[in-house]
Amino acid sequence: MTSGALAEARTWLARELHDGAVQHLTVMVVELEHLKRASASAALERLQATTRSALADLRRLLYELREEPATETGFTESIREGLEQLATTTGIEADLVIHSWPDEMPSNQAWHLSRITSEALTNVRRHSGASRVTVTLQVVGASLAITVTDNGRGLGNPESGFGLRGMRERAHLLDGRITLETPPEGGTRVRCIVPFGDSL
Predict the structure, then answer these.
(1) What is the mean pLDDT of residues 2-12?
(2) Counting CB atoms within 10 angstroms of each CB, which of 53, 151, 167, 197 has the fewest?
(3) H/E/C letters for each residue in the chain?
(4) What pLDDT is stored for residue 79 in this prediction?
(5) Is CATH 3.30.565.10 correct for 71-199?
(6) Band of residue 92 on the pLDDT scale cut at 50, 70, 90
(7) Domain residues of the chain, as ranges?
């Protein structure tokens, strides 16, 4: 495929996604809000949160397809919402600790870090047996560090069924790294460190 044809295909796909899936999901969010007012159902709230996540994913894809410079300002709020959803659906106590974090970051970086955090929380939900999890955000020198710590049963065999490969691949795309360990007090600690901003 020539560069011109590829650019045309990217433009077409961006337009179709925007005019189709994105618009439908936007309507769904509004309709779900109306339903929540009529019936304060926890199931409806979870469905609305899932729809919003799908909408955010599609918008990030549109930015990439259009090759537009894009930044993310809602990263910490999206992590907070994910933790609230985890607590609501599982009963696991979920905390967000922010020592320091940029108000704005490249959308590509925010996308991968969000996916890494989401995968770590999925592992807590499915495999850890934990009653508590904490996500810590911190700027360390010229890097961003995300740490997910739980009080569950520990690592076991993290190379098997832990989603570690995908997390490492995403960190690698950001020139970063993933480390896993069992702290002295038990549980599991997943830490992702990536260079921030213009170094990407």
Answers:
(1) 71
(2) 197
(3) CCHHHHHHHHHHHHHHHHHHHHHHHHHHHHHHHHHHHHCCCHHHHHHHHHHHHHHHHHHHHHHHHCCCCCEECCHHHHHHHHHHHHHHHHCCEEEEEECCCCCCEEHHHHHHHHHHHHHHHHHHHHHHCCCEEEEEEEEECCEEEEEEEECCCCCCCCCCCCCHHHHHHHHHHCCCEEEEECCCCCCEEEEEEEECHHHC
(4) 93
(5) yes
(6) very high
(7) 3-65, 71-199
